Amino acid sequence: MPKSGFDPQRHQRRAHRHNPLGGGAKPSSAPTKSQPKSAALDALQEAAGTKSSTSGSAPSRKEIVPLLSNLPAPDNVSSASAPVNLADKVWSLASVSLLLTVHPTQTAAEVKQNRKLLLGHNLVGRLLHALQSHTEVEVRREASGALRNLCVDAGVDVRNEVVNKGGVDAILSVMRWISHALGFVDAADGAAAAGSSTSSLSSMYQVTDPQQSLEAKLSLLAKPLDQMNKKEKRHATKLATLLGKSLESLAGQNNLSSADLEKLASSTGEGASASLTSNGHARAEPFLALDTDTRKGLLETSESLATVVWCLCESGEKPFAKLVSWKWLDPDLYGADVAANELRGEGLASWLASALSLGCRAATILSTTTADGSRSTSSSSAAGTDALAQLSNEELSLLLDLALASGNALCGLTDGGEAEFIDGFLARQTPKPAKKGGRPVQTALTPIANSLEQQPAAASRRLAQIQAAITLLQACVETPQQGIDRFKRFVLSQTTMLGVLAAGTLRNLAAAVDVKSVRPSGGKSHKKTETSPTSSNVFLPSSAVSGSNGAASGISLRRYEESVILPTLAHLLAGVDMVKLAHDIDGKGDLSEAASIDSANKDMDEAALRSRMQMKAEEKAQTLSLALEILAEMAGALDSKHGDDNDDDEWLEDLDAPEAEGEDDVDMEQDMEAVLGNGDDDDDDNVEDLQDDSKDERTAKDDMRDTFAEAVKRSGRMPFEAYAPQLCRIFSAVSDGSGEKSNIELASCLLTLARPFEASFPSLSSTASSSAASSQQSSVLLRGLHSRSLSVLNNLVLRLATLAPPPPSQPASDPKQQRRIAAFRAWIAGSSGAQLSGVFRALFEIARGCASVPAVAVVGDGATAVTTAAGSEAAIASAKSSDPSPDLLRGGDEATDGLQMVETCIGTMWSVSRCFEGRVSVSWGEQGDINVSQPESLNSELIQALMAGYSTASTDGMRVKCLGLLSVIGRCPDVHPELNRAIGSFLIERLEAIPEGSGPVAARGPTSPETLVAVVNGLIDMYADETSSYDSAFRTNDFLGRMRLTLFRCKTLAKQIDRRKQISLRASAEEAIENLQGFIQYRQSLRF
């Protein structure tokens, strides 16, 4: 599933906020005249500045270890002789954070050495103790920042140490403590206790007189903790958070400082009352009453802890389980009954979604900021009346950073579809597994929602918070990039990334609920369970969706993805200038544009300006990579009727139903027929589902089918756009007449992103040996964009190919299928077919270009075959005649990525050829294209490359794709007989290459079990129709006799597959052998 992967260097670049030498200022934030700093940090800055001026060497062991004396370990707290001064503790924490940060005066190797030394002195335990035992915001800010820097750049072992030493409890406890100040709605809403938590917070301001309200609060805080009831504890906790202290330190106190009294008084004034009654954000923002330093400290701490959660959730099952199972509701505050009903994961999901919502509001306000940092007076009502508008631009930027960290954490937590967190996010009570030897636990299950009103309110709120980021993304992709200042460009980039993260979270949710709703039913198909929803039963508010009717019903998540997220991401990709992005990533972009955007850049030297431009381009590339991952996941489910009982295309066959494991051969054959278009399986399921229905209901359904059939007869046929509207829109070159931008040619955008540049493969450059590590990283980013773009295109065409006409071995007999095939052929004969033909040629050119890269050609894997066809035999021979130079082999990833791109291109070409039933061009030139019906096709560029590519391939995946594309071309109705003979003979030679005997599979010949299955299926599909125009090649060349002689070898190879370790491969091989036997018997029974 889509998720944003870690980039330690990018996070270290953003870790300067915890660097005391950085002064706490973000270079990308709006300019501010002064940056408030604590006395401890000022002293540390002065000392560090003095030290750096006298010595440029890294700190030694004697200088680092004494820092930890101010950070007592948990097991040494009781034996401490004297308490540590607060300023000294902040000093030590800030110094540790600095030692764990890469900056101009400290290399990554030095950071690694410092981390190893600090970890040897129980750094993790010291940081967690400081984080949990102190309620001062300044301490928690520095402790969380150091922990963040440690987890981001460290390995899984260090993160597991954090978990094993109670890090999850410490981190989430502080996050819960912060949630009261930020006003996040907690998990009590999901436990049907929203009324109590809301009323308890509102009751603090029921007294209209400020003096009376202040006296009531002072009286509450003067009461001992053990004498408070649950409601009073909730009030006191809110007040303690308002003051930035713990409840234990405030309860029973009568001598509050003047600053604390001023905070309490200001929170009861007109400003607080206004914030509590304005536009729904009211009660949830007590942190607005805090001073600026405290607010910044809370926001920085929140962002750091959210990043740590992101790190931990991707570190294994144990950290993930602890994050999800942690109890957010304190029984002393909410009651034992409410705490017992808390859903696992709901509290964390609410916190992260609320943080993401705060960032969306901050981005909306920041979008009205002018170049000089002031707010536009003509700002929209939403931004102007928002309570957050009173914050400075720096604080709003911190909120946006917090939202980005929370979005990354949500993507990581929803990735993989873990049921507990998904159920908690959707506020659903599901059946609990029974304990071993015990009875099943009886729980009140949440009914499946058929509208927004039936969905739990907590789930709707969280989904709406994420939807807000998608709405901002829609605005971002429609905003022109020209003529905007540096600060707006920064806000636009950050908001775009936030929207893409939100789209990834919704994609993970949709995939998780769809997978969970389908289980093996013991038969030949998967059936939807009665207690699990699908993406069609998860609803978002429909007010933001154009053309939606009725906000009460909302819009299903599945339709929201197709109607909003898909076109929005397509617009995002369409707006990318790939040439400029590649040059910027490579550090060779135009500096004049960067200087014109911001006058401050004119005084910057060229190296620094290029570095900044390169960093921004890398961040943009990472955003695009995540968007491509989302599209790749969505592509496989487009235009399917999975789980949607209200679809207009409900009558369509389920052509992509997943195959169950462990089925017998008969069931597997029937499933394969269903995948290739036979609707019998779906009809059988309908009959089973209607067995318990009344006769009148069955008659009504039959009448509906007859009515539809009559409609088809009257209109002649249904257009293919009615079968697959989304796929048609993607591959259509002409708009559907609606005038909407959603009809963008996504396929063309993907091809533009997929074409590599010289910077994508450093081995192409003669100066590559002198390139720095940053250049290598840039090439990795570019190749990642190319590879992901090809994956999206592959999934889209593969989904389209499932609707294409089946091979001759699976003739269509069902009337519905025949109508759909006729509609498909009519659709592909138009302009859409011309676009797909262009896609086919572009894919071959991309594969040929990747194969010509020296690092790829040296390794081989079939890429050499494509290059040879292009006329680069000399280059390949020269590369292979001598030992590979270190320059060619230095990028093992470069060779791997290039080979993967070649393989993906050939696989996508295989799917395109299935759509055309083999009618594709096999060579292109100035004199015209050569198609498969011409005699020149035998020696064409593509055919020779595929045959040679099979011989030089080192992976079974590459071999199977070459064979699949050849077999589809060979069974084209218009194929030239000589080309069919050459392809057929080539496939049979693969069977003849299987060695005789029963040796181990490791010692087999060039034909593997995977290629055996591909060859057998290809031969049967080509020669299943004895009336075809090319069947004479099968008869005159004695293909039947040659195939019969290889039957025993095929059986021997299939038996060598371990049925326990390779279950599906063994089943596929046995099915192929059985089909081969039947095919031979059938052809022998014919008289010619």
UniProtKB/TrEMBL annotation:
<dbReference type="GO" id="GO:0051082">
    <property type="term" value="F:unfolded protein binding"/>
</dbReference>
<dbReference type="Pfam" id="PF00514">
    <property type="entry name" value="Arm"/>
</dbReference>
<dbReference type="InterPro" id="IPR052616">
    <property type="entry name" value="SYO1-like"/>
</dbReference>
<protein>
    <recommendedName>
        <fullName>SYO1-like TPR repeats domain-containing protein</fullName>
    </recommendedName>
</protein>
<feature type="compositionally biased region" description="Basic and acidic residues">
    <location>
        <begin position="692"/>
        <end position="703"/>
    </location>
</feature>
<feature type="region of interest" description="Disordered">
    <location>
        <begin position="517"/>
        <end position="541"/>
    </location>
</feature>
<dbReference type="InterPro" id="IPR000225">
    <property type="entry name" value="Armadillo"/>
</dbReference>
<dbReference type="GO" id="GO:0042273">
    <property type="term" value="P:ribosomal large subunit biogenesis"/>
</dbReference>
<feature type="compositionally biased region" description="Low complexity">
    <location>
        <begin position="47"/>
        <end position="59"/>
    </location>
</feature>
<comment type="similarity">
    <text>Belongs to the nuclear import and ribosome assembly adapter family.</text>
</comment>
<feature type="domain" description="SYO1-like TPR repeats">
    <location>
        <begin position="772"/>
        <end position="1086"/>
    </location>
</feature>
<feature type="region of interest" description="Disordered">
    <location>
        <begin position="1"/>
        <end position="60"/>
    </location>
</feature>
<feature type="compositionally biased region" description="Polar residues">
    <location>
        <begin position="531"/>
        <end position="540"/>
    </location>
</feature>
<dbReference type="InterPro" id="IPR011989">
    <property type="entry name" value="ARM-like"/>
</dbReference>
<feature type="compositionally biased region" description="Acidic residues">
    <location>
        <begin position="679"/>
        <end position="691"/>
    </location>
</feature>
<dbReference type="InterPro" id="IPR016024">
    <property type="entry name" value="ARM-type_fold"/>
</dbReference>
<dbReference type="InterPro" id="IPR057990">
    <property type="entry name" value="TPR_SYO1"/>
</dbReference>
<dbReference type="GO" id="GO:0006606">
    <property type="term" value="P:protein import into nucleus"/>
</dbReference>
<dbReference type="Pfam" id="PF25567">
    <property type="entry name" value="TPR_SYO1"/>
</dbReference>
<feature type="region of interest" description="Disordered">
    <location>
        <begin position="675"/>
        <end position="703"/>
    </location>
</feature>
